[in-house]
Design goal:
This protein has 3 helices and 10 strands. It is 15% helix and 36% strand. A hairpin with an 8-residue loop joins β7 and β8. The longest helix has 15 residues. The strands form 2 sheets. Strands 3-4-5-9-8-7-6 form a 7-stranded antiparallel beta sheet, with helices on both faces. Strands 1-2-10 form a 3-stranded antiparallel beta sheet. It has 196 residues and is α+β, with helices and mostly antiparallel strands.
Length: 196
């Protein structure tokens, strides 16, 4: 898949991830959630300052038994399980496309994929369920026994009973798929020691 070049590339600042071992250009209005609460060591989590959108950069174990073309769906279903969205109709994959390595900064990957799908999830174990579009970027690094997952959670419909309902109407300049694609394109590895 050819990634569209996101506008304003020159003024975008690369943001250090995992103590500078990785970096990427994050979308505007990103808030580092680790400044607000504890985040697992294998994750970097960012939220949009004015919407309910979020981004998660996660280092997970490389799943050698999963073929490259199936790996993004494997991780998507794993996330669906964590979100308790596995019941029939609770999740759907709408597309899985390979990313062209020549357009990526992280050329060490054996393959890279972008999946788009939806999940019906509740926040904080609430009864109310929200429909969330999930854009998932996957970089496979078998030489480091690692898959790098980048997840863009983009809520589409918020239940009026959800704790997110208050921010649902205030979508000032939400993040776009182009913002997410720029993050995927600019993800750069600086220190392989990150992977042990």
């Amino acid at each position: 898949m050819e990634l569209q070049s996101a506008g304003g590339g020159s003024d975008a600042q690369s943001h250090p991830l995992f103590g500078g071992a990785l970096s990427a250009v994050l979308p505007h209005s990103s808030t580092d959630i680790s400044e607000l609460r504890e985040i697992p060591d294998n994750q970097e989590v960012f939220a949009h300052a004015h919407t309910d959108q979020s981004l998660i950069v996660e280092l997970v174990e490389y799943q050698a038994q999963v073929a490259d073309q199936d790996a993004a769906r494997y991780h998507f279903e794993d996330i669906a399980g964590s979100n308790k969205a596995l019941e029939p109709g609770g999740f759907e994959v709408t597309s899985v496309v390979p990313l062209t390595k020549s357009e990526l900064s992280l050329s060490d990957c054996s393959s890279a994929w972008m999946l788009t799908g939806t999940q019906c999830v509740s926040k904080f174990n609430e009864e109310a369920r929200n429909t969330v579009t999930l854009h998932l970027g996957l970089f496979r690094l078998p030489q480091f026994s690692t898959d790098v997952l980048i997840t863009f959670n983009d809520p589409q419909s918020i239940s009026p009973n959800s704790s997110s309902a208050a921010s649902a109407g205030t979508h000032r300049e939400p993040w776009t798929v182009q913002d997410f694609q720029r993050l995927l394109q600019t993800l750069t590895l600086h220190n392989p020691g990150l992977f042990g």
